Amino acid sequence: MPKLVAILAAALVFPPAAAAHLRTGTVAVDYRAQLTRRPVGPVTVGVYQSDLALHLSVRPGHTVTVYGYLGEPFFRIGDGAVTVNKASPTAAAARMSTHGMSVVWHDVRTSRSRWSVPVAVDGRRETIAGATDRRARPSLALWAVAVAAFVLAACVLRSPVAAGVLSSCAAIIVAAAFALSTYASPGTWIAGVDELVFAAAGVGVLRWGPPSARLPSALWLSLLGVAIGLSKGEVFLHAIVLSALPGTLVRALTVIAIGAGIAGGALTWRAYAR
Q1: DSSP string covering 76-88, please?
Q2: All structural domains of the chain with their residue ranges
Q3: CB distance 64 to 119 below 8 Å
Q4: Is there a contact between 110 and 132 (Cβ–Cβ < 8 Å)?
Q5: CATH of 31-134 given 2.160.10, 1.10.10, 2.60.40, 3.40.630
Q6: pTM for the full predicted model
Q7: Helix (H/G/I), strand (E/B), else coil: 51
Q8: What would the pLDDT profile of 185-234 be if each residue is shown by its tens digit?
Q9: How far is it, in rounded angstroms, from Cα 170 to Cα 245?
Q10: Residue 27 in contact with residue 35, Cβ under 8 Å?
């Protein structure tokens, strides 16, 4: 049973190619972009922190033309459709997604510290302007020490069940924080539901299963917590955490998930060794 649990948990950390594709939601980044100027009137514009892509939408009955890197007309929103200038060098290089009167596109200009994108709203020249800056990364050594300290603290409990439950609970909160983020992809939602089901199964066996199943369940929950925590390891490598909870809280919960999970696994194997 312990071997089977370990194999299943390893599959969570190292999914096959098809499953890994579902976990493509951005966890954390180093650059933050913000708008400093936007057109007035019937236009809504914003910038995504996950990849610095711009999004622009226009109310019906109005038109907007966005100009490219060379000042040429790039695309136009109006008359219920988006029209892309195929002769535009910008259009040839940009990745775009359109839906009705809205466009999302990756614009290399947003990677500059100060940037601007010229537009025309109902024939009136306007400018979308913003600033992008790099934030300081967290101290990886400090968070590694925090994980080690939590492993030791959890081992003091001498309860693999308590450590496993604590690890999985912290991990599920982390998973939910990313699933509820503005930047969550459908794959992130699917992964979050899967992880919740796995955790519920482990807790269910602890609550209603036979006594002989308690240690395997504790090991399962511990390894599940470690797997989820490691899958979000980018929170320790980048400055800005893209979750529904504050970045520092997410990092702390990830530390608990990994630390308690390692401790729970060690305590479980120790119990089996006896």
Answers
A1: EEETTEEEE-TT-
A2: 2-28+136-273, 31-134
A3: yes
A4: yes
A5: 2.60.40
A6: 0.81
A7: coil
A8: 888 889 999 999 999 999 999 999 999 889 999 999 999 999 999 999 99
A9: 13
A10: no
